[in-house]
């Protein structure tokens, strides 16, 4: 709170700073990059940023925000599913921006840029042109064209490529590693992204690519040098201050390692299905096995169909070439009704469900074996560790249930034959 009050006081002092008639064109502007910390909603896990323009002549503080989209639009889901989500550049006041992030309990940091007056004027003119209704929209890309890359590109352009020059080295992590570390505290989002994203985000990237994250851009701006008035290099960031302090723990610096726990979960679920198959002579066990087969098979098969759709019919490049299609096989959706037949003790349904489970196990095993080839470089070991034991347990359980049904049929036939002999 004290930091916020101090920052507001500094802002008020800046508003009172006179601008003389002899000032150079653009001298009235102060350009700062704002970096917003992560929030609770899945959309906010990666943080956010914007450009703050303080105009001492007009006494205004405008925040140029490239991360605006119609959250309440009825077309949001269809557009998102097609991979054609549009964002736009909006302009808000600094006061309203601070209030929004205060309610969301998110940190705000400001980095004032040491730009010459002509460069300040240039970036303001470019932002104003970009904010016009005919220019403000762009097709959003999670990693290559988002709120952070737009700010990065704007600063890079006005500094003559100095940001790119400083960011040409290899990144410390891949896009996937950064994604997983930032959503690690939300298990459903973590698993959903881990299973849904293909191998594109596992390729080596540069520090320039890594600045899809606002926090990484914030760090790199501190390292950029630009020519000063005397021709000597000076830091791009003149000064930094924290406008708003959030009450939340720091984000992880590394992605979690969860293959062990996911292997245990998969082994428990798969072992449970196998145990139910062993006990399938009892009706309760058979019913539970059938319902478990129906639910798990349908969900995993539905995921496979969705991944296939993303790959073939949408612009979601991050979902293309998803090796998890071998773990979530589309044909498993048929288990939704075959599992009901298993629960009812139908031999034909149990046999077909077993055949589909065996094929799914084969596909999952193939996905594991192919990891030894350089072309199969997707980091999906955690998903394999979770799903291979499930398919193995389901296959064994259905096999044993089928044997139990065959045994019941043989015993029933024996009883009939004995009854016939007694009557004879």
Could you explain how this protein is built, in words?
The protein has 424 residues and is an alpha+beta fold. It folds into 2 domains: 2-171 and 206-244, endopeptidase fold (from Nostoc punctiforme); 259-423. The protein has 15 helices and 9 strands. A 7-stranded antiparallel sheet has the order 6-4-3-2-1-5-9, with helices on both faces. Strands 7-8 form a two-stranded antiparallel sheet. The longest helix has 43 residues, at 381-423. The radius of gyration is 29 Å and the shape is elongated. The model is unreliable at 1-22 (pLDDT under 50).
Helix-strand layout with pairing:
Blueprint (H helix, E strand, L loop, with lengths): L1 H14 L13 E8 L11 E8 L4 E9 L7 H7 L3 E8 H10 L4 E6 L3 H14 L6 E3 L7 H12 L3 H5 L8 H8 L4 H10 L10 H4 L3 H8 L3 E3 L5 E3 L1 E8 L14 H20 L4 H31 L21 H9 L3 H23 L11 H43 L1
Antiparallel strand pairs: 1-2, 1-5, 2-3, 3-4, 4-6, 5-9, 7-8
Helix pairs in contact: 11-15, 12-13, 13-14, 14-15
């Amino acid at each position: 709170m004290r930091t916020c009050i101090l920052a507001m006081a500094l802002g008020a002092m800046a508003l009172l700073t006179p601008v003389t008639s002899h000032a150079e064109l653009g001298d009235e502007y102060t350009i700062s990059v704002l970096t917003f910390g992560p929030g609770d909603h899945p959309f906010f896990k990666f943080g956010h940023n914007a450009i703050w323009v303080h105009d001492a002549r007009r006494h205004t503080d405008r925040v140029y925000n490239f991360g605006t989209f119609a959250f309440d639009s009825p077309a949001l889901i269809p557009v998102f599913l097609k991979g054609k989500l549009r964002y736009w550049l909006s302009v808000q006041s600094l006061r309203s921006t601070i209030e929004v992030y205060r309610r969301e309990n998110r940190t705000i940091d400001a980095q004032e840029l040491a730009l010459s007056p002509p460069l300040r004027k240039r970036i303001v003119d470019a932002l104003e042109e970009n904010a016009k209704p005919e220019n403000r929209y762009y097709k959003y890309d999670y990693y290559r064209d988002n709120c952070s890359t737009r700010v990065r590109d704007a600063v890079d352009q006005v500094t003559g490529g100095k940001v790119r020059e400083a960011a040409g080295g290899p990144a410390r992590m891949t896009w996937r590693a950064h994604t997983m570390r930032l959503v690690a505290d939300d298990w459903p989002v973590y698993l959903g992204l881990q299973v849904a994203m293909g191998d594109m985000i596992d390729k080596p990237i540069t520090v320039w690519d890594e600045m899809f994250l606002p926090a990484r851009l914030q760090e790199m701006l501190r390292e950029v040098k630009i020519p000063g008035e005397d021709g000597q290099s000076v830091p791009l960031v003149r000064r930094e201050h924290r406008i708003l302090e959030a009450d939340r723990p720091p984000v992880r610096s590394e992605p979690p390692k969860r293959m062990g726990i996911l292997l245990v979960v998969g082994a428990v679920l798969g072992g449970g299905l196998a145990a139910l198959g062993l006990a399938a002579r009892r009706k309760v066990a058979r019913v539970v096995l059938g319902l478990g087969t129906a639910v798990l098979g349908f969900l995993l098969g539905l995921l496979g169909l969705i991944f296939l759709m993303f790959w073939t019919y949408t612009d979601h490049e991050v979902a293309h070439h998803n090796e998890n299609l071998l773990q979530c096989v589309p044909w498993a959706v048929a288990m939704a009704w075959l599992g009901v037949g298993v629960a009812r003790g139908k031999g034909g349904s149990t046999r077909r469900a077993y055949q589909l489970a065996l094929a799914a196990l084969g596909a999952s095993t193939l996905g594991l074996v192919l990891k030894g080839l350089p072309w199969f470089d997707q980091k999906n070991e955690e998903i394999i560790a979770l799903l291979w034991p499930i398919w193995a347990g389901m296959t064994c359980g259905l096999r044993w249930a089928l044997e139990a049904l065959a045994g019941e049929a043989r015993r029933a036939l024996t009883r009939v034959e004995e009854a016939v002999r007694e009557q004879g």
